[in-house]
Task: inverse folding
């Protein structure tokens, strides 16, 4: 790799210098001069295609009355910004927030994709953007992102820290899950603090599928803010590993996904795979580091 002006020629550690320059290497600058990298994964839960027994909590398909508007079509300064809403007497209004959906705003519209045994399971599938469901009658079902209600995303982990429920140094996805499970009378109200709601569809074949339209690869697919890093580009990641004693994550990864909480330069979310082990790494990853954008010549 050949570095551009102002970039160290040794920034890609452990890679031999190539005599023929293949890539231009760009440092993505951050005001803090350091990045934050978290992890995500594809969780696995039990569910059923039909409501019954312990399966009483639905994941919803995208409603047909959601209208998505690309604001860039009206003003070039708003390129890349979208709003989502519904028509009410010829006026576009915000779509139902999470609390309204939890209270039954979508009931009776045949939008239930699959039924889960715990509403917290659905909340975490939303956070991860995908999931695999072990069906009660046998087999598996993979669900993937199919839109959102357009409400702003709010990280309830910050609320739990602010109220003293979880110390900041112990914050993780596992800690949030444990608190919600241990406080069933307060869990829905806490989840409702995040008004954003994700809709899903069933996906066949390899997956999960990222925003770039490609199947994600464990350890090598990164969710980014496309304002700063183009989707489908190659990035060199240098970040600490979530497990103590493990070497740093220093590798080439593909920018194949996005996320509601992944905003700004030097912000990334590394995909760890499917299941419990992947969830452990993803849930504990709060890593400092940087990435560099590699552009083919």
Result:
């Amino acid at each position: 790799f050949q570095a551009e002006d102002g970039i160290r020629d040794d920034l890609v550690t452990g890679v031999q210098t190539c005599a023929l320059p293949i890539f231009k290497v760009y440092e993505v600058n951050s005001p803090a001069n350091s990045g934050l990298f978290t992890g995500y994964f594809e969780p696995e839960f039990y569910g059923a295609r039909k409501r019954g027994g312990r399966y009483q909590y639905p994941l919803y398909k995208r409603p047909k009355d959601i209208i998505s508007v690309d604001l860039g079509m009206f003003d070039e300064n708003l390129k890349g910004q979208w709003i989502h809403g519904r028509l009410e007497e010829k006026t576009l209004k915000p779509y139902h927030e999470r609390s309204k959906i939890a209270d039954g705003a979508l009931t009776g519209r045949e939008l239930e994709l699959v039924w889960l045994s715990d509403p917290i399971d659905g909340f975490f599938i939303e956070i991860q953007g995908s999931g695999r469901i072990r069906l009660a009658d046998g087999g598996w079902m993979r669900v993937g992102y199919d839109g959102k209600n357009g409400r702003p995303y709010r990280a309830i982990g910050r609320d739990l820290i602010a109220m003293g429920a979880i110390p900041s140094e112990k914050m993780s996805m596992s800690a949030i899950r444990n608190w919600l499970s241990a406080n069933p009378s307060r869990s829905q109200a806490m989840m409702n603090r995040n008004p954003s709601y994700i809709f899903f569809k069933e996906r066949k074949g390899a997956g999960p599928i990222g925003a770039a339209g490609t199947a994600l690869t464990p350890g090598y697919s990164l969710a980014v803010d496309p304002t700063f890093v183009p989707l489908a580009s190659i990035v060199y990641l240098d970040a600490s590993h979530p497990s103590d004693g493990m070497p740093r994550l220093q590798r080439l990864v593909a920018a194949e996904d996005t996320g509601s909480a992944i905003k700004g330069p030097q912000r990334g979310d590394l995909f760890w795979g499917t299941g419990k082990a992947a969830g452990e790494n993803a849930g504990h990853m709060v890593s400092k580091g940087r990435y560099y954008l590699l552009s083919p010549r």
About this structure: The helical segments are 98-102, 119-128, 156-162, 173-182, 184-191, 276-284. Residues 1-19 have pLDDT under 50 and may be disordered. The longest helix spans residues 119-128.
